[in-house]
Amino acid sequence: MEKESGSVESFDTIWFAAKDDLLNETPIKPSIFSWSLKLQTQYFIAERIKFLEKIFSMFPSGKILNCGCGTGQWSIPFAQAGYRVTNLDLSDNALIIVKKMFEKKNLTGEFVKGDILNMPFENETFDIIVSFGVLEHFSNIDQPISEMIRVLKPGGIFFADVIPKRFSVQSVETCWKTSIAVIKDLIKFRFKLIPQRFKELKPPFYENTLSAYEYADSIKRLGCTNIRVFGVRGFPFLILPLIIERLYVGFLKLISPLLRWFDTSSSKFSLFWGVIFSFTAIKECKNNYNNE
After folding, report:
1. For 25-50, b where at least 16 C-beta lie within 10 A, e where not — what string?
2. How far is residue 34's CA from residue 14's CA, in Å, rounded to a whole number?
3. Residue 192 falls within a domain, yes or no?
């Protein structure tokens, strides 16, 4: 079995490298010929937040815990919508970024350094528990899921997006990204960099290969009901010249009803092809908490 060690250090390095760009007060305005996937990301996040706001509407202004908050791209929209957001991460650099981003937008929130396997919160503290791209970094998913459910109030909402290691539309975007990088290296005669591009196909962190049903079984066993499973994001993020990316996002908006159906159909095809396994559940029973 692959070791999970190194994932936290890898992400801390990633957030450190991204810190200056994200916190730059006067970002450089890209030209129409710049290569980008920013507009695609913004479109997806906006669509995803609309979906989540409907799910979370039973707790207006409720307390949300974002486990593994990263840069806060998911926390910020909820804080703007009036939720009381607590950001938890084990990376100092991630917490620096998310705190500064909250300050820049005049938002209030809590910022806590902590391990998802042993969170510094009392039992049944939060109305909603969320995680985005976190659980796939554990070989034993019962451990983080149990801890998330521990701090969730009975009747509260458990939500998780996970991206396990498997074939999906993400395989298309990975191949595209590598191909574009190699082509640029060839054009600029940077032949020595090409082997590194292929090494980068293997991420520097651990990802499990569990199925959506294994996640759902764990969530159920650990104290949740009304579990729903979705395959999400059936389109690839493609690094494109900005002028072409605008056309691509325009096309995505045109077919947005189809993409929304894909994200909420729970079909076998969406679970196979979608980048993300997404789970919603309700905590309705008491648990044997790890720290009792």
Report:
1. eeeeeeeeeeebbebbeebbeebbbe
2. 22
3. no
The boundaries of the domain holding residue 20 are 7-166+205-283
DSSP 204-241: SS------HHHHHHHHHHTTEEEEEEEEE--S----EE
Cβ-Cβ contacts under 8 Å for 170 (sequence gap 6 or more): 163, 236, 275
Q: Where are the alpha helices (DSSP H) in the chain?
A: 7-23, 38-55, 75-80, 92-104, 142-150, 169-187, 194-199, 212-221, 242-254, 256-264, 268-273
User: CATH number, domain at 109?
Assistant: 3.40.50.150
Asked if residue 64 is part of any domain, the answer here is yes
The reply to whether 187 falls in a domain is no
Reference 243, options 28, 36, 27, 29; nearest CA is: 36
- 115: which DSSP letter? B
- Domain membership of residue 86 (yes or no) is yes
Per-residue pLDDT of the chain in tens (292 residues, 90 and over written 9): 344 545 677 777 777 667 667 777 656 666 666 888 999 999 999 999 999 999 999 998 899 999 999 999 999 999 999 999 999 999 999 999 999 999 999 999 999 999 999 999 999 999 999 999 999 999 999 999 999 999 999 999 999 999 989 999 999 999 999 999 999 999 999 989 999 888 888 888 889 999 999 999 999 999 999 999 999 999 999 999 999 999 999 999 999 999 999 999 999 999 999 999 999 999 986 654 444 4
* Number of other residues whose CB lies within 10 A of the CB of residue 89: 28
User: Number of structural domains, the chain?
Assistant: 1
